[in-house]
Amino acid sequence: MSKILDGRELKNIPWEDCPQGFTGPIWRYSQNPVIKRHPNSEISRSFNSAIVPYKGEFIGVFRGDNLDDIPHLYVGHSKDGINFQIEDKKISFVDEKGNPLPDTMYQYDPRVIEIEGEYYIVWCDELCGPTISIAKTKDFVKFVKFDNPFLPYNRNGVLFPKKINGKYYMLSRPSDSGHTAFGDIFLSESNDLTYWGRHKVVAQKGYEWWCALKIGAGPAPIETDEGWLVFIHGVNRTCNGYVYSIGALILDKDDISKVKYRCKNFLLTPETDYETNGFVPNVIFPTCALTDAPSGRIALYYGSADTYVGLAFTTIDRIVDYIKKNSR
Ligand code: BMA
């Protein structure tokens, strides 16, 4: 039996039981996708988005690719974590003194991480090319942006959901300015979320074909008695373009820069219509996981085909057992 260590209860976690006879590590929600095309009048497609429990309901920061294809971030509200109302106006940021900041050219692939009652948004932002930005909010109305914590180029970052020995930790995937044909997961450390250092390589792209080109962290790591569970995306380069699948690894609890188990199989790969058809076919990209510690339930949200948000389920026992049995 494996345990989720944060001890938090989320009685209303979105859930659907495992279909009878299904033997895989993760099963898809039968009513997917949960976010369809044109969720508001400005957004053509919404995917790669992050949801958290908030005041007994749910709130999220959504990637919304506009009618000119350029992505921005939007707040969305939901009573059940499945049906979302996405606000009409994109998020604007203020600096640490409260002064409004000019909009950057684009913003995408947000993660939302709660640490000690504050919600941190981490996303890919524009700074002479893609880089990682961080902002904080308490109310999802005022978003205070930190002063350029990362250099370009980097398009994928997520924070650990708690400080470890008084420090913040970020997993990120340094890149180039285009559709990067490489990608490994790095760990960085900070006292204050602005100055980052002590960078370490945590996991590199794999021998396995599904993640042979690049890997990157997905949702905020989940603390378990076996170590930190990290859902990842892994990319295969086929003759018809990149294919993004979902995988996982478990980091050592005493040294989070060390991989303890790494699953050699993907957990999910694009198979359904809403994953294999869309703006970018054959992409599934995990960005957020809700957990309920008492039941061990996990609800995993993922972008699908750069067009929709999908939802899938597992339990901590099932996923840890699968990763350990299939660890390379
Ligand atoms: C990645 C990111 C994601 C996107 C994926 C597939 O590099 O840019 O936003 O979902 O490519 O297009």
| Quantity of strands, as a count | 21
Query: Helical stretch count?
Result: 2
Distance between the termini: 21 Å
How much β-strand is present in the residues? over 45%
Low-confidence stretches: none
Cα shape: globular
Largest sheet: 5 strands, antiparallel
Query: What small molecules does this complex bind?
Result: beta-D-mannopyranose
SSE series? EEEEEEEEEEEEEEEEEEHEEEH
Helix content range:
under 10%
Radius of gyration over all CA atoms, rounded: 18 Å
The helix-and-strand class reads mainly beta
| Mean pLDDT across residues | 98
Chart the SSEs and their pairings.
Layout: E1 27-28, E2 43-54, E3 57-66, E4 71-78, E5 85-86, E6 107-115, E7 118-126, E8 130-137, E9 144-145, E10 154-159, E11 168-174, E12 185-190, E13 196-203, E14 214-217, E15 222-224, E16 227-238, E17 241-251, E18 259-262, H1 273-276, E19 284-292, E20 297-304, E21 308-315, H2 316-325
Antiparallel strand pairs: 1-21, 2-3, 3-4, 4-5, 6-7, 7-8, 8-9, 10-11, 11-12, 12-13, 14-16, 15-16, 16-17, 17-18, 19-20, 20-21
Beta-D-mannopyranose binds next to β6.
Describe it.
It is a single chain. The strands form five sheets. Strands 14, 15, 16, 17 and 18 form a five-stranded antiparallel sheet that branches. The chain contains two helices and 21 strands. It is mainly β and 328 residues long. It starts with 26 loop residues before the first strand and ends with a helix. A hairpin with a 5-residue loop joins strand 12 and strand 13. It is globular. It binds beta-D-mannopyranose. The site of beta-D-mannopyranose (BMA) has 10 residues, from strand 6.
